Amino acid sequence: MFALNTPARDDGVRRPNRAFPACFCFSSRAFAALTLVGVLAGCQSPNPTAGMERQNFDSQYTFDQTATHRQIWLTTAERRQSADAAFILAQNTGERTWIKRAVNEYGKLTKKHPDDATIKAHFGAALALYARTPQRALSKGLANKWYGSWHGERAIKTLNEAIMMDPLNPRIRLLRGEAFAQLDETLNTDAVASSDMSMVEQWLANPLTNSDEFHSVTLTDRAFQEKAYLSLAQYYEETNRIGDARRAWASLRDIATDPTLQVLAHRRLDPTI
User: Fold this and answer.
1) Which of 22-36, 53-67, 91-105 is predicted least confidently?
2) Which has the higher per-residue pLDDT, 105 or 186?
3) Sign, CA torsion 195/186/179/243
4) CB–CB of 64/79 below 8 Å?
5) How far is CA 247 from the centre of its chain?
6) Pick from 53, 60, 56, 92: which is nearest to 79 by CA?
7) Number of alpha carbons in the 13 Å side-chain half-sphere of residue 112
8) Chain centroid to CA 269: how far?
9) Could you say which of 68, 145, 205, 266 has the lowest number of CB atoms within 10 Å?
10) Do residues 198 and 220 touch, judged by C-beta distance below 8 A?
11) Mean predicted confidence (pLDDT) in 197-214
12) In sequence order, what DSSP letters do the residues of 191-217 get, joined into one string?
């Protein structure tokens, strides 16, 4: 054991400081050498392909934490199914739990697949749902309106990026139109929402007007047609475009295979039914 001495005080007496074991006393060169050895040892992998295997594994699986705190790995397809289910429930119920779940799931997918325009669009649409959901009071007295506006601006940015990536995708156009129509009017998204919804209706009426062959096929999908006409009818009603709404309801009535949608369309066209 040894003692480190402090500098002399005014009285000229040198007093001992705390004591350290002698094994802790070595030169800066020795410390640097030990550090270098540790770094080199850490860089060596007992399995040369371990890094590659880990990279391949990460490209197929993402980490998830369940409600019971049980750690599991989900494939991208499984996480996408989970996100889509949460998003549908969020749209239908408006419950904050499902909205947050959709935002979290699509957020993880977006980070892992930044070039997937459809995933990015769903993430933006989920953020838009979050923006118009009543928020809890925030710390430091921040207003709920500001909090919703922040998420709204983030939703706008994300959805616009998705459109730039795939401008002829009818699903993305419909998602942006629905989302922008529901955002706060101070964000000035009404004109873009109207343009997107009109474009989707034009594509539905004549799929060949969409120059992308792949997306033209999407426009002939019956499930997409039902969803799109339902969204169009509801949007036109909310914006007091009664004639456009009746046209959309009539189109839904004519193509719907779901009995529930058929009854709904008939009742909207003739309230006496």
Assistant:
1) 53-67
2) 105
3) negative
4) yes
5) 33
6) 60
7) 22
8) 36
9) 68
10) no
11) 91
12) HHHHHHHHHHHHHHH-GGGS--HHHHH
